[in-house]
Amino acid sequence: KNQVEQSPQSLIILEGKNCTLQCNYTVSPFSNLRWYKQDTGRGPVSLTIMTFSENTKSNGRYTATLDADTKQSSLHITASQLSDSASYICVVSDRGSTLGRLYFGRGTQLTVWP
Amino acid sequence: EADIYQTPRYLVIGTGKKITLECSQTMGHDKMYWYQQDPGMELHLIHYSYGVNSTEKGDLSSESTVSRIRTEHFPLTLESARPSHTSQYLCASSEHFVGQSEAFFGQGTRLTVV
C-alpha cells in the first residue's frame, strides 16, 4: 500500500534554532517528492520538488534531502523564524500511470516560539 | 503567490441547505482538483478535471458534485449539506498531470454544517 509517514507529528523550537523534519514513504514506482508549507487556515504552498536523481534541493532557509534507496526524505530549516510556524507536508507522486497521483503525509506541525 | 482563488473562505450553513464552493484560476491550467482535509489529517482527492466538460471522482467518496464549463472555473456543489460534510475543501490546479508538474493550491474553504 502506498503511504507517506511523517515525524514528528508536532515540534516546538525557539526562534533562531534549526530543525529537521522526516518523511518516509512506500510509494512505488516513485516519480517525485515535494515538501509543502501550509499556514493555518490556508492552502499548501510548494517549497521544493525533487526527482529520483536529486538528493538535495534548497529554497532559502529550507533544504530538502532525498534518499531514494531508503525511501526517506528530510526537510531542514535553518535559523527558524516566527513565520515558519506552520504545518509541513511531505507529498510523493507515483508514475504508475501517465496521470500520476499524489500521496500526502499528515504533516508535521511546527511552532516557533520567540 | 499562485493565481487560484476560492470563495467563500469560511461558510457556516444549516443542515439540508444547498451550497456551492467556488474555485477559479487565471493560469490557464487544464487540470484542476478538489481535495478534502480534516484537521491533522492528510488531503484526500474527491474530484478532478482534465479540461472543459471533463470531470471524474477521486479516491475519497464524496456526495458533492463538480462541473467544468469554463477552463478557469471549477465549482463544487453539495445539494443537501450535512454535519458530516464539515471539513476544509482545497482547490488546486496544475499545468500538466499532477504527478509530473507542480500543483498550485487555493487558500481553501472552511465549511461548517450545523
Structural features, described:
The complex is a heterodimer of chains A (114) and B (114). With 114 residues, chain A is mostly beta strands. Chain A is 0% helix and 58% strand. Chain B is mostly beta strands. In chain B, β9 and β10 form a beta hairpin.
Task: Provide a count of the helices of chain B.
Answer: 0
Model regions low in confidence, pLDDT < 50 over at least 5 residues of chain B: none
Number of strands of chain A: 11
Helix content of chain B: under 10%
Structural class of chain A: mainly beta
- Total number of β-strand segments of chain B? 11
Helical fraction of chain A equals under 10%
Secondary structure elements and pairings:
The complex is a heterodimer of chains A (114) and B (114).
Chain A: E1 4-7, E2 10-14, E3 19-25, E4 30-38, E5 45-51, E6 56-59, E7 62-67, E8 72-77, E9 86-94, E10 102-104, E11 108-113
Parallel strand pairs in A: 2-11
Antiparallel strand pairs in A: 1-3, 3-8, 4-5, 4-9, 6-7, 7-8, 9-10, 9-11
Chain B: E1 4-7, E2 10-13, E3 19-25, E4 31-37, E5 44-51, E6 54-57, E7 65-66, E8 76-78, E9 87-94, E10 103-105, E11 109-113
Parallel strand pairs in B: 2-11
Antiparallel strand pairs in B: 1-3, 3-8, 4-5, 4-9, 5-6, 7-8, 9-10, 9-11
